[in-house]
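Worked example

This section walks through a single chain of length 128. The input is the sequence exactly as stored; nothing has been trimmed or padded.
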Amino acid sequence: MKNNPYILKKEVLPVFYNIEITPDFKELSFHGKEEIEINILKEINEITLNISELKISKASLKQTENYDVQKINYNEKYEMISFVFKNKLKKGRATLKLEYDGKISDKLRGFYKSVYNDKGKEKIMLTT
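Given that input, the structure is written out below as tokens.
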């Protein structure tokens, strides 16, 4: 992607994801909680992730100490989000904790709905 200021750098590598999603079928929306175990390869104060149509309500990072997110930058064009921390994060393992809300769409990305036929009846399923 030419001129993309959000090209992912190999400064942070995901190790393990623990994701909890609570869907609301009536409103076609969901609430999510996620813990991402990461390996930080060099001291940084910003972590950038791919994101699509989510609104973050809480974000924090736990390493040997807790780090609060100072600023969240969304880039909808490139479907990226950056979490900026006041202090530098140390090299090594850490856990990024997120809470977010989103809309369930039929765009075939993220958490979306799909339609299938079951014995002549059209049914909806949610998938990711």
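What to look for: The CA atoms of residues 71 and 101 lie 18 Å apart.
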